[in-house]
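Hey L., structure's done. Input below.
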Amino acid sequence: MKSPLSFFAMILICNCIVLISCQDSIPKTSQDQISNSKKNNPTPIDDEYAYKEEAISIVKSRTPPPPPPVIEESPEEEIIEINELIYTDQIIEDHDEFEMDVEELNMDVEDKEPIEHNLRSEIIKESKHNTEEYNHIVENEFLSSLEKPLSTFSIDVDNASYSNARRYLNNGQMPPKDAVRIEEFVNYFNYDYPQPKGVDPFSINTEISDCPWNQDHKLVHIGLQGKVLSKKEMPASNLVFLLDVSGSMGDYNKLPLLKKAFQLLTQQLREDDRVSIVVYAGASGLVLPPTSGNDKNKIMAALEKLNAGGSTAGTAGIQLAYQTAESTFIKNGNNRIILATDGDFNVGTSSTSELVRLIEEKRKTGVSLSILGFGMGNYKDGRMEQLADNGNGNYAYIDNFQEAKKVFVQEMGGTLHTIAKDVKLQIEFNPAHVKEYRLVGYENRKLKNEDFNNDKKDAGDLGAGHTVTAIYEIIPTSSASTSANKVDPLKYQDRSVKRWAKVDPDWMTIKLRYKKPNGEVSKLLEVTTKDNGISLQATSNNFRYSAAVASFAMMLRDSKFKGNATYDNISEMAQGALGKDEHGYRKEFLDLIQKAKQADIRLTAEK
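Output:
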């Protein structure tokens, strides 16, 4: 009998013979192809641009690069960076297949194949790895009109907070309290204010009535309506698309949605407009030199080629974008960088304070910075809001394709074209009528009283057709209610109401300063307003709807000032003040109220 060892040795020899036969059966040509493929496509040694299909190679530059090329002389194959050169073979060539109109783009990116994920699993994934950041908000308190008669703040046209909170509610979650900025909820919606009639680029509108969440209080509604400009009236635009293509942008609601959004904007461009595209990941690069807005195929092809990969050198991208915008600056034009990112910078300067100082210095060039936020899980809201505020631009969050249409199509004039800059308001309250007051929202837009007359102090800008609304909650002198913190009586002076103020029917004086888009000296406007005894039911749709939105935001924040507000009475008031709702945003708000109510019930039950 043969030993077991001999038996297993025979099996091993047979397996080796079969393996050698299989290798010999592979055609020599196939082996050559595999070998050549490995030679021609070596494994990349870094991940600076981990593009999947048409890779962009990065070559270190040992000498300082020249400035970005001007539009007349830009060779299409040369792409210039601050520290590096990027070469692309096909990224900016014409592609007929990219001829499309807004209707062809009118599809929700969530219908695309990469988005067919289980929504609940996405929520669970987000909760496990959530590194989103929001700046802490301390709500405005009531102040005594005798002790502090002035309230000074900058306007705010940002609305990112609303669409970001909508993303949470649509996912069945309550948004973080500090993600809710009341003024951005209110200013997400347009209001039916009259167009300006004089030389000033906006109208000022006021209204006083009862406070819906506290029957002992009043609300003061202040609304600004920016002048609407036709496309012919809009100056030529010099735009730089600064796009984050790092690895963190690979999710379905980031780079894929970003590309669709900017393709929408491309469709709105005119022949006199010019566009450059700067991208950044582990390094930054100019992937599309300044190109006429009439050459839409080239712009859209460049956008379509982008893929996500690598780390996030946001500062280098910002510097290159400003360099590019300055090299093709249009005098008296709209010179603007549009940064699209999740805000998660992790290479180079990443400190928010250092980035803000950089942006403050760069805004002196006359180039504005607007920011579009994308994605979830690692979203850096506080950083992006500060950059946009200090860059003389606006800040929006794109949570779906419909929001992209709102920003880049329906409200393009307000998004891109400034009609008044450094707009500040200062309200002086008459203590004969107003005991205490509270500015609802605008916590991070408050200014020192002396900043109002200081033309060097930066403030918010107003875009063409934009509306801006501010709300004050008032405790009238006739009310027994009081909320302001008290101090001891003064020993050496007496705060008293002037005799004539007691007979003056005006409750307050509203002062406003603004500069022309290219001006350096502000102009002062002044209006007064009084209580005409109008009941809440008799107020305008503007008044009631904005009050409903502000009340809803206070509910999401669980504000101590929300009074007797409930989801149901908020919904009822908003339903009765829908007014003109051309695009359905106000009806959508009603749906969000119900989603918040259900999410709040679940959250309470889990406690």
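The two ends are 76 Å apart (CA to CA). Confidence is low (pLDDT under 50) at residues 22-128.

-- N.
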